[in-house]
Amino acid sequence: MALPHPRPDQRAEPGPGQESCWDYPRPPALEVSSETVEVVVGGVVVARTTRSWRVLETSHPPTYYLPREAWLDGALRETAGSSHCEWKGAASYYDVLGGDQVAPRAAWTYLDPTPRFADLAGAVSVMPGQVERCLVDGEEVLAQAGGFYGGWITSRVVGPFKGEPGTWGW
Q1: How many Cβ atoms sit within 10 Å of the Cβ of residue 63?
Q2: pLDDT tens across 7-33, in order?
Q3: Taking the complete model, does pTM exceed 0.70, yes or no?
Q4: Is the CA virtual torsion 97, 71, 20, 156 positive or negative?
Q5: What's the CA gap between 132 and 15, in Å, rounded?
Q6: What kind and span of H or E run contains 44?
Q7: Average pLDDT over residues 55-67
Q8: Where are the domains of the chain?
Q9: Could you please report the per-residue DSSP string of 23-77?
Q10: CATH of span 19-158
């Protein structure tokens, strides 16, 4: 069993053009983004937009949500299951299809989010580690560790990030 990592006493100091996830609020904030965001599955760009939202929460890299119209027709297929976020409400899931590939249950949406996150209604995010790749302004995204969280790590944000073994209580 992994020993818990203590909550870091010191965040990594952001450099020019960077931000620290330890400066993000809790409860999370919602921020409009004009960055070019792309999702690739099976060699196909299945979603692209310059109008997305970033959810910013202490200790987490941003999670990007793309408007439904950013997705190619047929790229999202409803799938079974749901989950609940204490901040955003009930989530439902999609398989993501591109080329001849299927990324099972890799995307989710909040059809009726809480009032604080009403702008996200119907917007879709993906787990970067479950699709071929995600890009933000041409930079390939790294997935937040742990397989539970949907954070998108780019050079723009510094941690340390929640998700590694032993960080659950951060």
Answers
A1: 22
A2: 666 678 999 999 999 999 999 999 999
A3: yes
A4: positive
A5: 29
A6: strand 44-49
A7: 96
A8: 19-158
A9: GS-SS-EEEEE-S-EEEEETTEEEEEES-EEEEE-TTS--EEEB-GGGBPTTSEE
A10: 2.170.150.40
